[in-house]
Amino acid sequence: MGTKEFLDAHGEKITLHQEAHSVSCREFSVVCPKLSVRSVTSCTCAVWLAAYAIFAYTQNTLVLSAAIICTICGLLLYLHFMKIDQESLLLIGSLGIQLTTSFASGKESTVFIEMCRVKDVVINEAFFMQKVVYYLCILLKDPTDPKEISEIVPVFQSSKPRMDCLTDVYRSCQEILSVKSHNVATMD
């Protein structure tokens, strides 16, 4: 299906990879911008300059050591828990939806939703700081009443793609879901 470049909600470039594994199985991966060496360097320099200023005033070398350790630990924690490189959605019409988040440190987080729990995939809108933000979400059926919605699972939360990117993913998801609902209707 291909690769396309889009912008995220902050105006940075993101890449959408689409792959059709079969007629009822598609994978969408949104690759986020890489960590900027400039921003890491500027933050590190700011912390170390502040530590050196405190050291010059107090003559305590413990301040410099603490600044170095805090900077390294902070960067490692940021890479392992916060900086997301890629988010993917794997939709298998007969089985379910798998959401995978890949962090910069290599850690991955995966959530699987069975297709029998999926009511629909929609594009929703939210108001944030005087602007409208669109996001793709999965509506889950209420186990007690299948006509009701019990939960909303947002997709691509970290990459925050704009509407044009979400529309591509939405259309492909709806193609698979419509085939699934047609097959269920013919079985009834």
What attributes characterize this protein structure?
188 residues, alpha+beta, 3-stranded antiparallel β-sheet, elongated, transmembrane, transmembrane helix, Phosphatidylinositol N-acetylglucosaminyltransferase subunit H
Short description:
The chain has 188 residues and is α+β, with helices and mostly antiparallel strands. Helix content is 36%, strand content 40%. It holds the Pfam family PIG-H.
Note the gap between the termini.
33 Å
Major sheet: size, sense and barrel closure? 6 strands, antiparallel
Shape: elongated
- The helix/strand class is alpha+beta
Pathway: Glycolipid biosynthesis; glycosylphosphatidylinositol-anchor biosynthesis
Protein name: Phosphatidylinositol N-acetylglucosaminyltransferase subunit H
Organism: Xenopus tropicalis
GO molecular function, one term: glycosyltransferase activity
